[in-house]
Amino acid sequence: MIVILKQNASKEKVEELKKLLLQRGLKLHLSDGEETSLIGLIGDTTQIHEDELKALEVVEDVRRVSEPYKKANRKMHPGDTVIDVCGRKIGGGHFQVIAGPCSVETRDQITQVAKDVQKSGAGLLRGGAFKPRTSPYAFQGLGAEGLKLLLEAKKATGMPIVTEIMRLEHLDLFEDVDVIQVGARNMQNFELLKELGKLDKPILLKRGMSGTLDELLMSAEYVMAGGNEKVILCERGIRTFEKSYRNTLDISAIPMLKKKTHLPVIVDPSHAAGIRFMVEPLALAALAAGADGVMIEVHNDPERALCDGMQSLTPVMFDDVMNKIKRVLEPFGKTF
Amino acid sequence: MIVILKQNASKEKVEELKKLLLQRGLKLHLSDGEETSLIGLIGDTTQIHEDELKALEVVEDVRRVSEPYKKANRKMHPGDTVIDVCGRKIGGGHFQVIAGPCSVETRDQITQVAKDVQKSGAGLLRGGAFKPRTSPYAFQGLGAEGLKLLLEAKKATGMPIVTEIMRLEHLDLFEDVDVIQVGARNMQNFELLKELGKLDKPILLKRGMSGTLDELLMSAEYVMAGGNEKVILCERGIRTFEKSYRNTLDISAIPMLKKKTHLPVIVDPSHAAGIRFMVEPLALAALAAGADGVMIEVHNDPERALCDGMQSLTPVMFDDVMNKIKRVLEPFGKTF
Amino acid sequence: MIVILKQNASKEKVEELKKLLLQRGLKLHLSDGEETSLIGLIGDTTQIHEDELKALEVVEDVRRVSEPYKKANRKMHPGDTVIDVCGRKIGGGHFQVIAGPCSVETRDQITQVAKDVQKSGAGLLRGGAFKPRTSPYAFQGLGAEGLKLLLEAKKATGMPIVTEIMRLEHLDLFEDVDVIQVGARNMQNFELLKELGKLDKPILLKRGMSGTLDELLMSAEYVMAGGNEKVILCERGIRTFEKSYRNTLDISAIPMLKKKTHLPVIVDPSHAAGIRFMVEPLALAALAAGADGVMIEVHNDPERALCDGMQSLTPVMFDDVMNKIKRVLEPFGKTF
Amino acid sequence: MIVILKQNASKEKVEELKKLLLQRGLKLHLSDGEETSLIGLIGDTTQIHEDELKALEVVEDVRRVSEPYKKANRKMHPGDTVIDVCGRKIGGGHFQVIAGPCSVETRDQITQVAKDVQKSGAGLLRGGAFKPRTSPYAFQGLGAEGLKLLLEAKKATGMPIVTEIMRLEHLDLFEDVDVIQVGARNMQNFELLKELGKLDKPILLKRGMSGTLDELLMSAEYVMAGGNEKVILCERGIRTFEKSYRNTLDISAIPMLKKKTHLPVIVDPSHAAGIRFMVEPLALAALAAGADGVMIEVHNDPERALCDGMQSLTPVMFDDVMNKIKRVLEPFGKTF
Questions:
Q1: How far is the alpha carbon of B261 from chain D, nearest alpha carbon, in Å?
Q2: Are C165 and C131 in contact (CB under 8 A)?
Q3: Going by fewer Cβ within 10 Å, which terminus of chain D is more open, N or C?
Q4: Which of A46, A55, A134 sits opposite B137 (nearest CB)?
């Protein structure tokens, strides 16, 4: 971290600042220029927030040189983290496809979709029981009943399941869930992240709609700081000015996250696009850019889906996408 | 709501769609053009999500004509809602200043700041006990202890207090809090909003960093749908490409929200700017644009603040801002 | 186009509006609901701007149903446009790689790079002679001299060349240029677009940093309306909140543009990323998502490049990317 | 400027870098930490682009400490620049109102509006002759004929005029124009800016729709570097995710620009809002935030305006806004 001092900073105040920084266990490196004087901070600066120093009268500006995250940082952990969900590996060359409906609706629906996507090669089953909806008047998911149906589908197929949590009090209900999803709107629900950090279960953490990569990594850090290092990051589209699609898939996030962190990175092309015909090209692009997996919405009857039917594939369409993925998996250096 | 049909839509499928819509209790208005055929939906369309219809094969696009919010809508409630907090009125020509430190730090600090801002004319006291921080390694607030100190400051001065909730389990601790704040990061924490809708206490709802006005109003609707209609909206700056200030105050939101809703609208210039010298011009601009109040961070020793010192005013600076506000309150048609 | 009338609109004023619209040669379709009355406009609405109608007292809102562009619209021209540049085809299954340095610097540099990228399989040579730079104090390109050197490299290798125009007065200098590039900052330089519409030469039109797809297509329409239908669209990254890379490649733009228009769509991963290591994954993602080509910056000595060295590949790195592209070209249904 | 070196940078390469920087006339300040080594550059760094250094193998990152603009920088010119347009002063406590129609349409229209706004207290007349329109099929302005009519209105009223240039070849036509406007879409039309830098005439430079303040100032620097220091900056709304208004007025830009630069800063509430009822609150907010003037669209018959009627005030409405401005001008420390 570099502290840039004001041109007219009094010697006394600067000495005070130096004392304060030394007390925090940092070493200081001074550099006095004609126009600008700097203090370089050496040591663990993750404990210091830039704004804290900017509040000081003598400080002109503060620039962070090292990353504010530790456990998620690839510099601390050069090898890829591989997360194993009941034998399905994600990361380190292992590509996984998570598929299923937006919402769990009926026993038949979720079990049938599970069987279909499994046959096509999906490794994990997704399905929403608790749904975050913009309107209080919209369908909010089947809740606990939905979770029960999802677990039945798991039993029927043997597929591990991924589903979203929206409220800490529900945590007990998630005991048999294999991967707990944190939705984009909760990326900075720090209280939720802290509690998930106490579990020993993979967390699929979605990037917020206008969150930066460093913010996503800081949210992963909240979970990891609690002791749970099994975090899967998920790029699901960001908000931009473009109105032709619901969100804009940030494909650049994939190579950059792979550089910044050792955690696996997957992509949700269904939510990113919000439109069925774009799911295939975006899923292939995710693979080409280096993602460790994709999460795709599949519904047996998208026209009658209670939620997000517009972006759901039919099982037949999904099978087609899977075939295309299989054809390029090897040249892109991945295996299922 | 207008449903635009695909050019080649089969008659059969269109009939199916019409039946579906009639079942929802809507009246339909058909309009067949050479190139485009439309169905206008008449009735309560707040129960229908655009995407649900877009999922249908015969539908090209859907355009909402009426607003998706009901209770927050000014059309349903033309007069201004005036919220009374222990005798301090907000809305309907009543302008309130909420002031206090970002975080409660010590008994002396919060009580002293309370007395100072009260003397200058602030009506309510703010202070954070539970703090949402980007980094798990940063100061997270004093928690329950902070709330206790805040209540002591209330006792000492008689000022009603505003403070942020981050977790439903804490709700009991907030019994004597006068206004519960929902932070920007929780604007779409729908589970939290639902519970706050069951209380009989004003809720100060902050706009999310990249939330639209309609999303903010839908979040207010979540609270109001539960029965609690005492919602105060707060514009606190949005995320933009500009890096010179922490956020960009969306001043246009004020006249537009006043048109869309009957709820009071206040502005937080401190968080919007993130820099001390901008607080005064932004507070005055908020008043000029028609806001019902401002929320300003004041700290007795900003250089040693544990949080957001950079944007906090000293009591002396705050007094100066209050004097400027008082001078133009009347020409802008407001009273304290 | 649908005109939504105000609830309390006077009959007289509505009649006036209807007369006005009929005079424009449109047919009208009326739909009177209890709460909302609509007028559907049938005919060529590209001549009407939404805002023009919104200015009227009786109009509540206006929604466009059909696209505002005609010549660029795939509905008017279902087959892919294939652009032939001296025998190199772009579009309709033909994938082209355009490569070369950001700026032309010396005769040796441009000719050597041309030979290198040609050997690796690039079809066209790029190189900037006139450079748009944020700072007036930065290197502004070699100008006319640079164009001359670029033409020499064309002669030496037989590769057609692509270079950017910044000023109408320079048009004469571009006579032997094969493809004229319009940079992102000039996407809405309408006067420039109008003049380029009078040429019979392919125009490579880059999307503005915060331009929408419809705005890009309207800019293409400016060129096409003048008679020049040889427009190649180029996605080069948009501005977002993410600071880890210069721009954010909007990969979703590719399938959506291919749906909206018949024009070829290429991607510039070098400018999108601004960082060398991201060029390969983004180029492959572009191909996977359906792009008709990529434009990649290659420099013989990136560390000494006068411009954008940070994102330039060496010829060896470029050769490696080309090999990866060749390996997946066929499964993605493309040929060089 | 601070250069952060890679951890494993070879001594040899670092020496090479140091030599390169010394050759540019800079002094260097080295600081070797355990984890990070830095080089502080002292001297005129406006000639160096960050990306140029980032291209080097040994460089991890580059942080600019001083601003990249010189002539526009308040540090070089602490007092406010006051621009005098035929006796109307802008800046340094002088507040000016520029008013007139979006487009010049007829002699009667422009002359009548000019008389009306003059009577209400406007100091300068605006009116577009050349109009940048998103669609090639929309009204493009009266062109040279429009300029002629505008000059007649100037003659009739004595008001100096402001109008937009879109093309260098038109420069001759602008000889009698008092203030030349550069539109938002041309903020980075560097060739245009360079030529305007050779004039001795005030330039009203509008901020681009997603331009940052530093980019705006670098564009001002293009004009000033050419010798023309009479630049008036204009905030006219930025693009955000909010769809209720055309653009979002960045009110925070006013105090920040006043800190960064000595140039006058005005606001265009009409284009920022795009809706009539918002013009008044935004104009007052601009004044409250410290702007040096506002530019307001006024049309004698907004419902029949050929352009932007939706946001134009009638002369009666404008008179009302002027009265409100006059009432608070003095408490905000401004005079006409």
A1: 13
A2: no
A3: C
A4: A46
